[in-house]
Amino acid sequence: AKMGSIARGALIVLEGGDRCGKTTQCGLLLKSLVEEQIQAQLLEFPDRTTKIGKIIHDYLQRKEDLEDHAVHLLFSANRWEAVPKMQDLLLQGTTLIVDRYAYSGVAFTVAKLDFDLEWCKQPDIGLPKPDVVVQLQLSTEAAMKRDGFGRERYENADLQAKVASNYAKLRDSTWKVIDADKSKEDLHTELLALCKSVIESAKNKPLSALWK
Ligand code: FDM
Question: Which atom of ligand 1 is nearest to the CA of 152?
Fold first, then answer.
């Protein structure tokens, strides 16, 4: 980077169906990057710690019912409220590892209601665009054998299969699909190598806007 300007961090998004190991892999990635002195932080969506996130949490836990369009917009608002912080961190050189993003927003809403894909994308247009979207792919059969499947709203095989087919419609040049049906160590090794190369190549690229 030039004098006076810091190389920016990379925006790395992990997507995938329920129980694919996404959250575990986000944690392992953070640990390895920090050990290698690469500044990094985790984010997850929904971010359940904000006021909007608490409403979403209650909805997911079935403590509250909400109108479907309204919930979709709340998920999007929950990303937008994080954008100032994300931009600051990225521009200060911190890489962000993000557990779910706008792709989940679209894939889940379309899956549950047959909503129009383009309608679903609209509220997230203009969010910071990821440098890479890693989709951890695991068959629904394999996911269902893993512990913890089925606790929250959306955690059923039928919906998960639809989510997978919606992800396929959202793939663009920033997507990498990785087979997640392997040990967590092997998956981590593969992901870490990918992320380090993305971090290197993002350094001198400007941040751009999603779906614009
Ligand atoms: N989800 C997540 C959505 O429906 N829309 C969104 O925009 C996001 C980010 O919320 F079933 C769904 C996906 C999942 C649930 O996610 C909670 P976690 O990763 O299981 O906490």
Answer: 11
| C-alpha to C-alpha distances, 116 to 61, 109, 123, 162, 212, nearest whole angstrom | 25, 9, 13, 14, 18
The full 3-state SS of 121-174, as one line of letters, equals: HHHHCCCECCCEEEEEECCHHHHHHCCCCCCCCCCCHHHHHHHHHHHHHHCCCC
CB-defined site of ligand 1, < 6 Å: 45-46, 60, 75, 100, 104-105, 108, 154
Verdict on whether the full-model pTM lies above 0.90: yes
Q: State the pLDDT at residue 4.
A: 59
- pLDDT tens for each residue of 33-60: 999 999 999 999 999 999 999 999 999 9
Tokens of 125: 């247009």
Could you give the ipTM of this predicted complex? 0.98
